[in-house]
Amino acid sequence: MSGSAAENSAANLVVEGLTKSFGGTKVVDSVSLTVNYGEIHGLLGHNGSGKSTLIKMLSGVYAPDGGRVTLGGRELPLPLPAGEFNRYGIAVVHQALGLVPSLSVTENLLARRLVRQANPMIRWGRAHREARAALSEYGLAIDPQAAVADLAPVERALVAIVRAFREIAETTSGKGGLLILDEPTPFLSRVDVERLFALVRALAGQGTSVIFVSHDVDEVKELTHRATVLRNGLIAASLTTASASKADFIAAIVGRHLGSERSAASPRRGGTAIAVSGLATAGLAPLDLEVEAGEVLGLTGLVGSGYDRVPYSLYGAEVATDGILTIAGKRMPLPGMSPARAIACGMVLVPADRQGAGIAEGLTVGENIVLPALGRSLPRFFVRAARVARHAAGLVQDFDVRPCDPGRLMRELSGGNQQKVVLAKWLQTEPGVILLDEPTQGVDVGARHQVYGFIRDAAARGAAVICASSDHEQLEMICDRVLVFSHGRVVASLTGSDVNKSTITERCLDSLAGTLSGTPVLLEEKLQ
Amino acid sequence: MSEAVTASPSSAGENPRHGRRRFLLQLERFALLIAWLLIIAVFGFIAPETFLTWPNFSTIFGSQAVLVILTLGLIIPLTAGDIDLSIAQVLTLSSMVIAVLNVGHGWPIGAAIAAAIAVGLLTGLLNAFFTLYFRIHSLIVTLGTGTFLHGVTLWISSSRTIGGIDWGLVNATILTRFLGIPLAFYYALALALLLLYVFEFTSLGRKALFVGRGREVARLSGIPVTRMRLICFLASGVFASIAGVLYAGTSGSADPNSGTQLMLPAFAAAYLGATTISPGRFNPLGSMIAVYLLVTGITGLSILGIDTFVQDLFYGGALVIAVALSQLVRGREESLT
């Protein structure tokens, strides 16, 4: 093992012209980059910039359409069979970490060894000692016998990273290899992030190449040597971190501002439709909020900033710990909210998880679409099949669901058409408040504009819309006002001409700067 | 939103394919019924003088009403996404409760029947409590309660068959006939139609379906998921105990073991029934057809002099084949698009 200057300047990972298309769209377009031995390389970009696809190709999940990858001088025969990437000295730590929470640190850390060892007997005393030694090598005092579920979030991340590094070290005999960290930090506090960075630096110091995927420009600036920014599948910039400013990074991420055809702000407003005071839940500081009838309010922030919990807490899908909701003149305590009560007050929710929570895939379009109408515009008893079919056919027509056949199973439809069914299902109830979470996730471009249209139309008819989204272009297109969240708090409220993609993105990225300078004392304490 | 509402794609070009699809769907809906008629035709051809007789069919229709009702009870929790393995034991205990109270303690038959139904309700409540409150999988809960109930049955009967149940029950079940078929068949038919109405023509049935097929969708649509599952467990218990009442009425006695063997036939019929009438769904008429198809096959084989082991071969094989068929149904639905 060595971190000598000579080796540090030699390329370890070489990616040349890597390309990948899905359905005719180039998601990654001739991307080339090199990462040296011992280098920490940042990878930045918006959702949909091609980051995850690139990572999935490097870890052997996707077969590239073109280009080649060499690691330590050896060309990788992509795609690698499942689980085989370890054999080439590559390890990936995803945000989900891939640990088994109910098992002990030792079992997680030595998982592969314990399963594959030739000796059928497991000597637990020795295994625990080995785990303890592996952790303390990096100054980590974590009890190897503790269940992973009982560890602090940062300790889990540290265990996952040490495990990944051990796997690399096994195959590369402690030299070279590639460690990919895919957004490991969003749920960690500043102090914990520092612990994690210390570990990553120590590992890179042993000659391993690290790719650090993040949304967070400040973290990338702090940790990495160089960085690559992707936009629309292309390399937008290759930066040397020490000489690049934060503005350089943001300009590369956002790109030239394209004049998108933003829908006109709704002229008609009808007074406050929904008022929230002191909404609190896990990951969300007490929040006050008012939305007028006819207004579309956007909520956004980085992953883990808490904005996406708001629709679910208001709807009672997740139980809020505190807060009062005033809707249609009624005051309701939020901890006692339930979906049935929310619907009774004229609220509807379009969840982000369409397959799991939006539609029943094995039932027909008609059955899904008429569900809220039963017992309302359709009778509760003596539901006549013909009448239901007529009702469903009308909705399918109005919302342009294709194929135009209520008898189809939901799973036969494309994502965009499924989402139109979900919107039709709820908008037929003429709701006063519409809650949306990522309304166009997995929706193709054509249907996306239809979805925007349905949302704006509902607002024009007097509904208040609250839309949580990480798609800043979408927010620009449909929102009258956008709130930017960071660490569970609103850090910016954008209105008028400020509701545009680049301002929203800048505010999201800015939001981390404040927290960086906010905890210097704690940080120093930790480092000593 | 004028640009969004464009004309739906013309279907003129795909009419022949559309027609073929319709024909296949109709064929599939009635395939099991056709299979049943084929089985009748085959055995009728081999043994016309014993198999193709009215007394034979009248016996099949009457005596198997118990299995029909048990299967109907089973498809209620299955529709809502829960499994009830305790139904056959509820049936056995219910019939034993009637025998013990009516014969042993001299209760009037009406009161004994009420007690038997209460057994079903209580079991449903118990199953629901452990499944919903403690969030244990219904498979485990009902496996446990079922075995527990069988213990109770053996205990209160001292493991003996008890005969001499009030003749009124036997009369109302199997002896009185309408159009040559025992009344029990009509009870089963009435319950099947009732369930058909609830499943297909009430919002309650739709809600149960969504609870089974998309629990989170149901929750976010304001459906009281826990209450729906509770109702389904209770209904399953009641149906099973009604089956127990008729079981006691069919023989005028109760034995502590034979009823428990009805669990597998009920599952086989439920899954086989889900391949017909409304393919891909547990449905009452399909269940009824499936029961009679299975029993016709077994009766035919035993008339040919084949041993009783054929029952196990038939029911066990039918369950696995039925589930395999319903997987094929799913695959085909996807491949047709």
Could you explain the architecture of this structure?
The complex is a heterodimer of chains A (528) and B (337). By secondary structure, chain A is of the alpha/beta class. Chain A has two domains: 5-254, Rossmann fold (3-Layer(aba) Sandwich); 272-362 and 430-515, P-loop containing nucleotide triphosphate hydrolases (Rossmann fold). Chain A is built from 19 helices and 20 strands. In chain A, a hairpin with a 2-residue loop joins strand 9 and strand 10. Chain A starts with a helix and ends with a helix. In chain A, 47% of the residues are buried. Mean pLDDT of chain A is 83; it is low at 1-8, 257-261 and 515-528. Chain B has a domain at 62-258. Chain B has helices spanning 15-46, 48-51, 54-63, 65-79, 87-104, 109-133, 138-157, 167-175, 183-201, 203-213, 215-220, 225-251, 263-273, 284-303, 309-335, and strands at 162-163, 177-178, 181-182, 253-254. The relative contact order of chain B is 0.17. Chain A binds chain B through residues 315, 317, 338-340, 342-344, 349, 351, 353, 356-363, 367-368, 371-372, 374-375, 378-385, 397-400, 402-404, 408-409, 411-412, 449-450, 453-454, 456-457, and chain B through 1, 3-6, 8-9, 200-204, 206-207, 209-210, 213-214, 216-224, 280, 333-334, 337.
